[in-house]
Amino acid sequence: MQRRIRYILLLAIVLFSAGKAVAQLPMPDHVCIGDEKHYWVDSTASSGSTFKWKIDGVLVQTGLVDLFKYTWNTTGSYTLSVQELSSEGCQGLAQTGTVNVHSQITPTFIPIGPLCQNSVPPALPASSTNIPPITSTWSPATINTTIPGTTTYTFTPGAGQCAASVMINITILNGIHDTVAQTA
Fold this sequence. Notes:
This protein is 9% helix and 39% strand. By secondary structure, it is mainly beta. The protein has a five-stranded mixed β-sheet, with no helix packed on it. The longest helix has 16 residues, at 2-17.
């Protein structure tokens, strides 16, 4: 009976002390070129552990740091992995995932204008003519035709679309000013 209790106790110690860190690698990950991404390990059970972070098998970072920050500067598909080495010298399984780095898209639009002073302007488009379309916000948000001249409107893409900001110029032409001459 004592032997059975000893084995149960030993099994419990092994099970509860073998807690491994779990990598936070939502995969596949899609990032835009130039983005800095943060990947981490849930280190509640990994006090004193060392972590090896690799991209396509090449060691990029190692140490007690369970947070990995990386700026993706080249388009392509990469394998990101992290492996824990516990303070007791036990090596965990490598956690891996794919990171797809996409190039930046330039939004395109049908030109607007020139417009006449005080005319009813069209609305700025809510999305680009790209396929698939890129959605965004504009600044300024609406076209003002009360003042002649050229105004620059900036299209700022929504998050996660790998698209560049674009500026368009819209020209407002001088209105026609009729003058009435009075005769005597």
